[in-house]
Amino acid sequence: MRYGIFSDVQGNYEALERFFAETKDDIDQYFCLGDIVQNGTSYDDHRCIDLVIIKECLAVRGNHEDKVIADCTRPPKKIAPENLEYLASLPLNRSFFNYSLVHAPLNQRILTAEQAGEVFRQLPAFIDICFFGHSHQPTLFCEDEQRKITEIGLAGGMVSLKPHSRYLINPGGVGLYWNQLQTYMIFDDDSRYLHLKKLSGKK
Fold it and tell me: Where are the beta strands (DSSP E) in the chain?
């Protein structure tokens, strides 16, 4: 299986459409790690939710979804009721085989090995890989068999994951309103190769 892993769309419909277009022949299942929407005041938020549903993504709820749901009675909101219901139905985390999906582990941006250690300590023993978002930065932390935690560089764009280690993986952000690259990841669970990809420019 090849998984397309993305996060932090934040209502950027044009970027999300490009992401699905350039991965359509490469992916068996998509993981969406939250923050599909920005603030609910743009029709693009609604359209992003539609795309995530159409592509049958395994998705979790991010902090932007929580804010939109909490403010859903305040105009102007451009998200249809059925899509608001979809956002509200999303779990904060979900397990899939030996994978875990979550937007913000411990409600934090996980940027250091020390923070990663806190997350590893709370992960169930059967979870080998936790995919997360929220920080908008592509990140890979490894916990080896001796429980030593290291951050693995992603400059080469491809990493081979060891079978007896555990990992925290952040694909970066597809949408982004921060001054960073728009990125996502592809994970092949047969070869155990993880690919960091830069979203292509506008056509």
Answer: 2-6, 29-32, 58-59, 93-96, 99-102, 129-132, 138-143, 149-151, 158-160, 166-171, 183-188, 193-198
